[in-house]
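User: Hey, my collaborator sent me this sequence without any context and asked if I could get a structure. I don't really work with proteins. Can you help?
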Amino acid sequence: MDDLSWYGVRCVFRHRDLGVYEERVTLWTAGSPDEAIGRAEAEALEYCAALEDTEYTGFAESFRMDGVPGEGAEVFSLMRESDLPADSYVGKFFATGRERIS
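Assistant: No problem. I've predicted the 3D structure and written it out in structure-token form, which is a compact way to encode the shape of the chain:
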């Protein structure tokens, strides 16, 4: 793919000193999902080097955006099949009560 597209890439980090995991979404222009992930992973290593006791888990997912980033633009999306009712789904995967929101 020769044309550049915008990608949101989610990477997961472990902050050992805090005892938490962090999901971070960064934006990249790239010619393919693999290229976007490669660029995000290079930045992930820089991010870890700037922080103490933080490691990149090696987990990354990309999302190709339609158009360019702007107000209200969708920068990442993930779909998961589940038979759980909405409140149980959110409680299991997102609002577990153990999140740190900064």
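In plain terms: The CA atoms of residues 21 and 43 lie 17 Å apart. You can pass these tokens on to your collaborator as they are.
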